[in-house]
Each structure stands twice: as C-alpha cells, then as structure tokens.
Amino acid sequence: MSFDATSRGGAGGGIGVGRPVRRACTDLRSADEAVSALRTELGPGPFSAVFIFASDDRDRLDLAAALRGAFGDAPVLGATSAGEVGPDGLVSGALTALALPRESFRVSWRLIEGADRIRRADGEALARAMMGDLTARGGSAAFGLMLSDADAAREEALAFAFGGVDPDMPFAGGAFGTAEGGGGFVLADGRFTPKAAAAVYVAGPVEASMLRLEHLEPTETRMVITACDNDHRRVTELNGEAAAGEYARLCGLNPEALGAAALADHPLLAAEGGALHGRTLRRVDCDGALIFAAAVEEGMILRLARVGDPAAQLEQRLSALRGPAKPEALIAFDDLARRRAAETAQSAARVGELLSQAGAVGASTWGQQSNRMHCSGAFVGLSLRRVGLQASA
Amino acid sequence: MTAIVDSLLRPGDDAARQSEKLRRIAAALVRRAEAAAAAVEREKEPRPTLEETESPYALFVVAAAGTRAPAGEPPASDASEEARDVIDALPLGVCIFDKTGRLAFWNRKAETISSGAETALAIGLTLVDFAAGFGRLRPEDRDSLRRLAAWSGGEPPRPSLAVELRARNGPTVDMRAQDMPHGGILLCLDDVSAERDALRALDEINDRLEDKVSERTEALAAARDAAEAANVAKSRFLAAAGHDLLQPLNAARLFLGALDDTALDTEQHRLVERLGSSLQSVDSLLTAILDISRLEKDEEPPTFARIDLAELFEGLRREFELQARAKGLELRVAPTRRFVMSEPTLLRRVLQNLLANAVRYTPSGRVVIGARRRKGAVAIEVRDTGPGIAADYHEAVFEEFRRLDPAEALGPLSGFETGPGMGLGLAIVRRACQRLGHGLDLESEAGRGACFRIVTPCADEEDQPKPRRAEPSQIDLEEMVVLVVHPSVRARAAVVEKLERWGACPMEAGDLIEAVGAAADLGAAPDMILTASSLPDGATGLDAVRTLRAYFGPAPAALLVERTDADDALGRAAEAEDVDLLPMDDVDGRLRAALAVAHEVRG
Hints:
The complex is a heterodimer of chains A (393) and B (603).
Chain A: H1 2-8, E1 22-26, H2 31-42, E2 47-55, H3 60-67, E3 76-81, E4 84-86, E5 89-91, E6 95-101, E7 106-112, H4 120-136, E8 143-149, H5 155-163, E9 171-176, E10 185-188, E11 191-194, E12 197-203, E13 206-214, E14 216-229, E15 234-238, E16 241-242, H6 243-251, H7 260-265, E17 268-272, E18 275-279, E19 281-284, E20 290-292, E21 301-307, H8 310-322, E22 329-335, H9 336-344, H10 348-357, E23 360-365, E24 368-370, E25 373-375, E26 378-386
Helix pairs in contact in A: 4-5, 8-10
Chain B: H1 2-8, H2 15-43, H3 56-65, H4 78-89, E1 93-97, E2 103-106, H5 108-116, H6 127-132, H7 139-153, E3 161-166, E4 172-179, E5 185-191, H8 193-261, H9 266-297, E6 305-308, H10 309-327, E7 330-333, E8 339-342, H11 344-361, E9 366-374, E10 377-384, H12 406-409, H13 425-436, E11 439-444, E12 450-457, E13 481-485, H14 489-501, E14 505-509, H15 512-522, E15 528-532, H16 541-552, E16 557-561, H17 568-576, E17 580-583, H18 587-602
Parallel strand pairs in B: 7-9, 13-14, 13-15, 15-16, 16-17
Antiparallel strand pairs in B: 1-2, 1-5, 3-4, 4-5, 6-8, 9-10, 10-12, 11-12
C-alpha cells in the first residue's frame, strides 16, 4: 500500500529519498483535462522522463498537443494501448503514466522511425551510442525499455540489439496494437508515429529485476509451419494445408469461428532457446493466413497450448518478489491474449488487484521483450527496487 | 510418437495427399535445421575442422541427437530436439545428404524401408550408392538408377527428382530428391507397395479383360469374313449360273417358236403354248435372280441423276395400263411436279416391281402411284386396294423366295392369284433401295390394301420451272391429298382447280358413298376433307366427315358453306366436331389458311 501512497501522494510529496518513481492514472476523456489530472497526480517535476500509455480510442492529435510542454523539457515517451495497467488495476480507455524524477534518474532515448526496416547491426550501433551517451553523463544503465508498434514486426532484432548491448542489464519491452490485432503508435518527440519504436536506457538508484510469466501448458498437438512470410509473421501453410483451416481443425473449431476470443482460447507455443515460448496469434487475415505476434519461420514446430489461470501464478510470483524490501514500481507489459484468458477465467479483477498492489504501470501488448528475447503470450515486468545510493540533482 | 503424426495428418486424406504433405513437412523441418546449422557454422571462429563437424547436417544431427556435442557447441536445444522427434515420427523415410553428397542423417522410417529392401544405411553413403543397394531386376529400375545418377551429377539447384525403385522381394519405394538451400540434399522415401500392388492387380484384370475382348473380336471378325466370302461366292455363282442358264433357255424358246411354226394339231399346239408359258416363267425367275446377284455384287456406288417423276410415272402408266385394264383395275397416276435424285434404271426397276406386285395381287379396285413432299425428301407411293398384308408379315415379304401363306398373311383372297417371281420382286426392291440409300416402308393391314413408300432425296428445285400460281404464296401444299365432297360438279371443279394450282393433289366425290370409296382407294384418310354442308340422300357434310374419320382415322376437315347457311347452329355443331367453316365466296384466303394448318398437322 505504501506504493500507492507514493504515487498518489505526488502533489504533496517531497522530492528525494525513498520516492524515486511516480505513477498516475486517469480516465478523463478530454485530452487537456486528462493531462492536467496526470500532472496533478504525478506532482511537480522536474522529471528526466515521463512514460504514458494512452488507450487507442483517443484522439492522438489532441493528446499530443496537450502533452506538449506539460512536463517541462522532460521527454514524454509512450504508446497507444488496448488496455492499460495502473494504480486502479486492469483498466480500459485510460491514460496511465510513470514519471522518473530528475534528481535521481538519467535517461537516454531514441525514436526509431521505420522500425520495420531496421537491421540488427544498425540497432546495435545505435544502442552502443546511447550507452556511450549515458556513460558520458556519469550514469550506467540500470534497465532498458523498448516500446514499439506491433506492425513493425521487428521486436526480435530490436530486443537482440538493444537488450543485448549489456548482457547484465534487465531489458523489457512491449509491442503495441489494437485488440483486434492491428498496429499501434509510438509516442515520442511530441507525436504519435506508426511503424516506430522508442528505445530507452535509464540510469538511477534502482535495482531492476525481470519478472517473466507464462500461463500456457503444452499439449501433444503439433503443427509444422510449411510456408510463411517471415517479415510479416504471416503463416500461410501449416502441415502442408492452408494455415487457418489446419489450425481450426486442430483446435476443433470451424474456420469461420476464428475470432479474437477463439485465438486467445487456443494459444500456441514454440520451442526456442531451450524452452517453449508463447506464439500469440494476433488475427486471421482475409486470405486465411495467420498473423503472429512473434517471429515465425518455415520448419518451426508449434504446439497447441492449454490456457492456465494467469491470476494464481501471478500471485505466487509477486509474493516471492516482495521479500524484505518491497519494490517501488513494476513496469508491466501484459499480453493481450493473457488478459483475455484472465477475463475468460473471470480472474481479471484479481490480476488487476495483484498488479496494483505491486505498483504496476504499463499496458496490454502483442508480444513482449525480456532481455534479448521477444516472445508473445507472456507477462513481462521490470520490478524496480531502491538501492541506497542517492544521485545528485 | 503416434500422437505427433496424428496431429500432423488429416484422417480423410488419401495416400498420395498424405505423402505429399509429409514431404512438405519434412522439407520444412530440414530446411530450418539446415539454416540453424549453417548459422552456427558461420559464427564459429575459427572455421570448424572436418573432425568437429563434417557438414551442417552432421552438426544438426549431432546437436539434435544430443549424444555427442562437439567441443564448444551449445547443448542440444529443445527446438532441434523436437524437430528430431517429429522427423523420427514421420511415416515417411527421410535421409539427409550433406553438401559433399554424403549421407549424414536418416530417420526411423528410412531405416525400416531400407532394411525391407535389404540395403544398409551408413554415414557417408552417396545417393547413388544408397539407391544402387535396391533391386536391380526390372528394366525400369535400371532406368530409375540412371536418372538418379544423372541428377546427382547435376549442378544445384536442380528441379526435384522423383523415381521409383522396387527392391527384390521387398517394398516398392517412391524416392524424391530435392536440393536444400544450403547445399544439401533431402531424400524422401515412401513405401508405396500397397498402392502399387493394388494398381498391378487392377492392370492384370484389365489385361485379361482386354485379351478376352480382342479374342472375341477376332472370332467375330473371322465369322463375318467367312459369311461375306460365302455371300460373294453365292452371288458370283448365281451371276454365272444365270447367264449360262439363260442361253440354253433362249435357245429352247427359239426352238419352241420353230416348233410352233410346223404343222401341229390342236392338242400339240396347246402343249407348245403351255411349254412357252413355262419357259417364260423360268425366264423371268432367272432375270430376277440375276438382278439380285448384280445388286449384291456391285461395289461401285450408283450414279444419281435428276429424275422427272411425272415423266417416269407416265412411262410406268403406259407399261402397266393394259395389264391393269385386263384385270378390271383402275391404274391412276397422281399428277406431280417433283424431281428426285436417284439412279434412273434402278428406281424404275423398283417401281416396276411394286406396280407389278400391286397389279398382280389386287383383285379389284385401284392401283395408284404418286409422290408427296416430305421434309426435304420426296416419298413415292404405290397404293393398292388389294388384300393387304398383316403387320406380322411386313418384314417377311421382303425376304428372298419367301412365299407367304396366303391364308395367314393376306386378307380376303378373292381373285388372289400366284405367279412366277412372287418371292423375288420385293427382295429386289429392298436390295435396290439399300443400294440407293432410299428409305423403304410398307403401310398395310389385312383387308385394307397396301402402300409401299420409297423415300428419295428431293432434287434441287432451283432449275425447275416454277408452277404458275394464282397468287403469291408462302406455303407449298406439296401434293397434299385433299378430298373434295360436293354434289355440284361446278363447285367441285372450281375448288379442285384452285387446289391443283396450289400444288395439292385433289380427289373428288359427289356424295357420301363416293367419298368413302375415294378414301378406300387411297387406303388412308386424306390429308384434308373439304365438304359441302349438305349432301345428297339427306346426308350432311358433318356426316361425311364423321364417317370418313371413323373409317380412316383423324383428318382435318372443313365445311364449304354459302353465306346463307352460315348460321350459328351449324357453326357450333361444326366446332364441336373440330370442323372449320369456309364461306365459298371467300374461299381463297381461308382455304389456304386451313390447308396450311392441315399441312402443319401432316408434318
């Protein structure tokens, strides 16, 4: 509960020791009023960065205009989301925000436009430059973040480049898009940009630890990708048959019935790096191709998974996290399919409550990055815990 | 293991579709493994030595098997472990040759198929070595090996290769080889023994059936040839014998003539006359036989010419008139303007035979010859009022030397007389019609006379003189037989004149009795009945129509009425019997229309 007090008490709270991170949430529809409410809740700056996740049913131009100059010269970074995580738990149609006070944090960030065309080598060069920039200002990265448009479909390369620049640094990210499987917009530089990504490295007096949860249990039902378009993560053929029809057959469904709920109820797993990882289906294309939220390639073996209850597992892992010193904030990227599964299992409220207690700010995403890896169907969180150091202002 | 395959294949797929899908799945898995192995190899610094990894496939295989991880390699990942499990579970033999062409990996099914074919799989075998271990018996197998060797010798990328090998006492194996992107070869082995056995069994059944069919065909052909040969021989014999017989016969008749000139007594003279008549019979019989054999023997197609039927009929009338008159018969020729295409001598011969038959077997009444237009052709009819022929014998009368039992086949036998050639006249008619390609049919029943009909092609009418017509007309009445019943000769003549001008073929009758007689002469219902509304002896026109229809079958009919008797009662009565009313003073248009309708009905 102390985290709630921290973030909510922003207006009166003093700057300094023990209060490094602030968070806020509003469901006001007017852009000006919503931004004003966020400012009040986050408290006076100055901030080294403000992160905002805005529901994708809002007017992006109005919102971008309202945000301009709202937090002084602090960069405002974020994305459009289909479901937000904040102090009130799992919400929809809201704005959630997280602010890093300038006296404690240094931030190095870049907006990557045309992220759908980025090559790994370019990403790695950019990541090294950003790290150098941070070091030059006397900091070393405590953690990294990546916010990207799911339609850019380059999360693997981005995670590999930006998450891999320092193997010891926790790195988390999310790919944003609509609940129907469409793409999202990345907020940076005062505007919302499609097919973009924002990379951020943060130095500060926190110890970040990765929290990665999967709620899928493999079955023996397998399918082999026999034809696909890697660049667009489109699988056109499974087991030598048209993809949607074969997937529907193995799920015991009518191909006509492959809507968002059916896709969430029948998730897939792929073996990768010594373990099985989620391969969330974003949507079925009109030509019967399956659009995935993570990389696919010919010859990949997919397994049909059973959906577990996300709440029980989350509770167990979060209580383990608390330990002697409680984390101050949890930056959360929760898979859209996972949120649907929680809704189906009627445990969404419980999940929201657990996340709220853990100080979570974040959003529902199509695929998540954890360190060098991108997968989908998971919950990825960065838990921030205060260390004794106090950065100078 | 089975669970893996269960989800990969659809239960409803046929064997060929299953194999195709398995090959695609295997190729996808192998391509991915190869790419992964190639990536590992690329990143190794320095390059791996041959001892470490002979090829990307060896790397993949080793990593996948997880048994012998080369120094410095990451342990087998779950991904390749799972890929190996799936490949191992496939009911399709999978062999991978590395880019040096050496066998590096195979799955369980490949092992099963190879041991069935009594050939061994070993690391380092080439594709050709491996295939050569299979059966060498059949010529098509040697061809398969040659194709495989040629393919192996080719430069990648090659189009994928499909060959079939049948091991001695072992399985029939469908082998497909294809290049992999990183230089290796994927070989898929499919045991198709069951399918091939089924096909072979089917082929054998087919072969046996074909043998039987061709045996039977040969037997039939031989029988047909023998029959034809016998027929030709018979015809030749008849032709030769006929000629040889005619000469002594002619000599005999000459001698008989000479004998008749000598002084003979009455008795002797009578005997000579009888002898002459007998010789005459033999002569006509022989002539008929010769005609038949000539028709059979001739292989040249007949030469058709345009024949004016009016001319032909006139000649026939002169020829048979005396004969008919001698028997008290009326010989009628219906006027015609038709021209037909036929062979003049043969057609004349056909009609001669038909008329001779009709005159011979008709004891009293009429013999009529005429022509009718019929759908682009012309039907020449010879009708008689003779005893008729029962339907059962319509076929038999055309057979050679077939003498009908008169009691059975023919109707009332009054005046029936037999004569020489009776069994041959109609046989000649049929053969001639066959040879000319003319249709021939017989319409008759016992006691109702007979009508023989020859259907000949109509000759081009462009060069025919157009008959002069009273008015331009769209329809040609084409020898429609129209029976005109009217007590007034003048009225009758007026109508008949019109009908003749229009090309119809009118018959006249003054009263009901004459009308029935005329129709009886015709042996059928006329194509149309035109009758006055009242007839002599208290009969009405409707009575005449009813009677004619009752005796001779349905026929279109019309009442010729004066305006004065065109009352409603008559109109209703006529309508009730499907009879038209035609006012005499407006007869032209209405009559033509009525005739046109009747013409349509006749078809």
